[in-house]
Amino acid sequence: MQPFRHTGLVQLRTRNESDLDACTELIRLIHERDGWPPHWPEDLRRFITPPEELAAWVAEDGASLSGHIALHSSGSVAMMEAACRATALLSSQLAVIARLFVAPSARRTGVGRALLATAAADAHDRNCVPVLEVTPALESAVNLYESCGWTRVDQVQARFGDGSSLPVYVYVGPSPRPDGTTSS
User: Fold this and answer.
1) Structural domain boundaries, residue 13
2) What does 59-104 look like in DSSP terms, one character per residue?
3) How many domains does the chain have?
4) What is the pLDDT confidence band of residue 22, given thresholds at 50, 70 and 90?
C-alpha cells in the first residue's frame, strides 16, 4: 500500500508519531459530540496505538487532521469468535479494522469511505479478511459499513476489563475486486 493517497478532497497517509496529539484532540471532540468511544479509555494514546496495531492512516485536509483508521491483528474475544465462525477462518487470517473516526466537519465528504477502503485493501494485501465491530447506537457508522458492502454476521457483547459490556455488530468486509480495490 502506498504511504500517500489523494482522494481529491483529502490526502491519506500513514499515521506517524507527530499525529497523535491531533488524534487525541479529535477523539475528545467526537466523544463530546457523539459519545464515541462509548467506553472511555484510561490511556488515550494507548487506545490509538495498541500493541495489536498492524498499520494506521490519517486523512488530512490542508493542515488539519480530518480522520483516522487502523488495522489490528485482533479485536475483542467475542468479535473474533463470531468472525471466525462466520468466515470459517482462523483468527490469524482476519485483520480488524479499528479506530475509524472522522472530524464532524469532514463527515459525508468521502473521508470515512476512503479510510475504510485503504484499511480493507491493506488487510487483503496481507492475505487477510477484514472484519470490524461497531455498537448499534452508532447508526451513521453502521450505515457507512453497509453502504460500502460490509456484511453484518452477528451481534455479540464486547466485554471490558472493568466487567462492563456493550452490544456490538460484527461485520465482514467485501472481497477485493479484480483490480485489487474493495467496494466503497
Assistant:
1) 4-172
2) EEETTEEEEEEEEES---HHHHHHHHHHHT--GGGEEEEEEEEE-G
3) 1
4) very high
